[in-house]
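User: Hey, quick favor. My workstation is busy. Could you predict this chain's structure for me?
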Amino acid sequence: MLPGLIRAAPEPLAPRKTRVKPQLRLPLQRPPSYRREDLVVSQANAAAVAVLDAWPAWPAGAVALVGPAGCGKTHLANIWAERAGAARLEAGALPGQLDALRGHPIVVEAAEEADEEVLFHLINMAEDCGGLLLTSRIRPSAWRASLPDLKSRLNAVTVAEIEPPDDVILLGVLRKFFRERNIRPADDVFAYLVRRMERSVPVAWDLVERLDEASGGEHRPVSRALAREVLEEGPETGNLFADRLAEADSSGDKGR
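Assistant: No problem, here it is.
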């Protein structure tokens, strides 16, 4: 250093903004729970729950369970199937011979994709089989049906409609998902998430998973500040549980 010169102290570095660092995603080990005690009932689904609870006193033996993706159709359908001892069938895999199904209640997922002839006969035998539950994102009256007799029967099917999840359902499923991971968020986290998240149960699961990863990776409590960071980063792709739940609850465009 030259005489008379004083070395200036280095300027402090600006704090670096750190992003939430997720840990390595582990394979899903626990399947989604479709138990009755895990069902959250609110104004969004109370009418549909009442219709399914009225079984076996269904008009003509058939009900269509209708609602948007992620609203809980699969949960309700599984509750009814368990109670009724119903066979669960995919619309694209319905058997051509239906005699073996007589006397057995039936659930058909994504029912608007079913073969028209098979669907026609299923509706006709609904009372004899002990109940037919059809799930879909759209009302039966809007399904494509080239057979006039099928169209008239679809128009007459009782509809149990679920609205998009409201605050009560989102709060309930968030509490359930956090509880399953033994996480106790700060009290203000729930209201903060409910006000800002997409109205979807799979989205709620994805948020809880990402908050779990972020808090574990950085040893941070699940607080509103962490929730804000996770929401700002947006959802990740490749969430196996959300994909599977969406597919199970889809009734039109699979793998939403």
